[in-house]
Amino acid sequence: MNTSGDRLRMLLREVHLSASDFAKNRDVTPQHVNNWFKRGVPLARLDEIAELLCVTSRWLRTGEGPKHPPTNLQLEGPNHGNSAAAREDCGHYLCGPNSGPEKIDVEIPLHASFNSQESLRLSLRTLEQLNVTADRALGAYMVGNSMIDIIQDGAILAIDRGRTQIIDGEIYALEHHGMLRIKYLYNRPGGGLRMRSHNNSEHPDEFLTYDQRFEQNVHILGWVFWWSTLNNRRPPVPLDEHLTGYDGSKSD
């Protein structure tokens, strides 16, 4: 291990982290990380990466001195102030010899109506950007064509159960007589509710009074903050000629 790039490669292997996952977490491209392997870690990022992987900047840069900071000494680098940092608290990826990598993705459960042991996998960054905690998130599938052209039948949804206060015109998941529904919601006077579908030519608006909301067991699950995009309306494009026969001639 003659270069800081060699040492970085070894550290990522120790915590079972791929170069692409490390690049994603550091908000750089995988090519950047490969360049660091070949040319060495840039001086501007040495302290950051050393802290992340719980090694000393000097060891990462030169291979000399102690690999890990002592538990009774503060970390190297200009941004750590005067506070002492124990080794078990110093890194996000490597906090000890047997610890694993920082979470980059999280798994969230599906709504109980799908009777499935499957879970939805989302990036932690997506949740953080929208201020959604993993324990509040819930997954679901879109069933039917009521929201077609924006959410296709069969699309995967993610719901924030921490946001149940209705903001007019936002998309929410709700249970209605025990059935999961995905709708635009609007407040109405007296605590009433308007439920609107994107495909309102086939699914007209529904209006409920305050009393009807309780009589019909309407329960707002949360705000729909993410959904997958499917293009299930494939255009009738003919096959290319070279696909119609093995020898270049059209098959019968």
From TrEMBL:
Keyword Transcription regulation on entry: yes
Superkingdom, natural source: Bacteria
Keyword set includes Transcription: yes
InterPro entries: Cro/C1-type_HTH (IPR001387), Lambda_DNA-bd_dom_sf (IPR010982), LexA-like (IPR039418), LexA/Signal_pep-like_sf (IPR036286), Peptidase_S24_S26A/B/C (IPR015927)
Keywords: DNA-binding, Transcription, Transcription regulation
Pfam family, one: Peptidase_S24
Domain Peptidase S24/S26A/S26B/S26C, first and last residues per copy: 129-225
Protein name: Transcriptional regulator
The organism of origin for this protein: Pseudomonas shahriarae
Species lineage: Bacteria, Pseudomonadati, Pseudomonadota, Gammaproteobacteria, Pseudomonadales
